[in-house]
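Weekly sync, protein design subgroup
Attendees: M.S., D.O., the rotation student, P.L. (late)

Item 1: inverse folding check
M.S. brought a backbone from last month's batch and wanted to see whether the design step gives back something sensible before we order anything. D.O. pointed out we never logged the input encoding, so this time it goes straight into the notes. Structure tokens as presented (191 positions):
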């Protein structure tokens, strides 16, 4: 079983990164092969809407997304992790999501099938404010992203009121919840 973690924060060793690492440790504890992508370290151009993907399902832009597409299609579980920037995912995460227009085109324009088998997706997010609607827009974006890549949105870990680097370590349950989330995903997938 392959679990792909996508770290959308520009802050390595920050709160989102720590939660994602715990979720990946939980998945690994159940025998999963895990991989983590740090989007901020990649060169991913934003979608330019050239629509070349409508012809053959491939983006015409050549950059680090070329290596990401197969990982997205091979993963049994995809975990997207992002802090909230103005009540949305980071621009780094959004660039990756937008470039998945190519996979959306394969599925919806070209009617190609994407990998099946009950692939699962999870969203991990942290926000500094405690706003009631803090995660709503991002959840919708992530759900559409997962649908485009053939992954079912099955769970989430959303933490409000955490901002300073490493502050999540003082949260009473978040790291343990992330670890259990990773375990639960792999167990459910095996069942």
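Designed sequence read out in the meeting:
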């Amino acid at each position: 079983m392959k679990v792909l973690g996508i770290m959308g924060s520009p802050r390595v060793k920050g709160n989102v990164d720590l939660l994602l690492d715990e979720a990946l440790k939980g998945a690994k504890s159940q025998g999963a092969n895990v991989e983590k992508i740090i989007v901020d370290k990649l060169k991913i151009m934003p979608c330019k809407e050239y629509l070349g993907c409508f012809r053959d399902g491939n983006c015409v832009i050549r950059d680090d997304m070329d290596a990401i597409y197969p990982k997205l299609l091979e993963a049994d579980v995809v975990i997207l992790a992002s802090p909230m920037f103005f009540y949305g995912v980071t621009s780094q995460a959004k660039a990756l999501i937008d470039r998945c227009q190519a996979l959306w085109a394969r599925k919806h324009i070209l009617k190609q099938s994407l990998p099946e088998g009950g692939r699962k997706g999870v969203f991990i997010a942290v926000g500094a404010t405690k706003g009631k609607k803090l995660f709503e827009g991002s959840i919708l974006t992530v759900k559409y992203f997962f649908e485009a890549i053939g992954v079912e949105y099955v769970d989430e870990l959303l933490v409000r009121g955490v901002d300073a680097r490493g502050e999540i370590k003082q949260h009473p349950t978040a790291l343990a919840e992330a670890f259990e989330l990773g375990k639960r995903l792999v167990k459910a997938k095996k069942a």
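Discussion: The longest strand covers residues 152-160. DSSP finds seven helices and five strands in the chain.
Action: P.L. to compare against the previous round before Friday.
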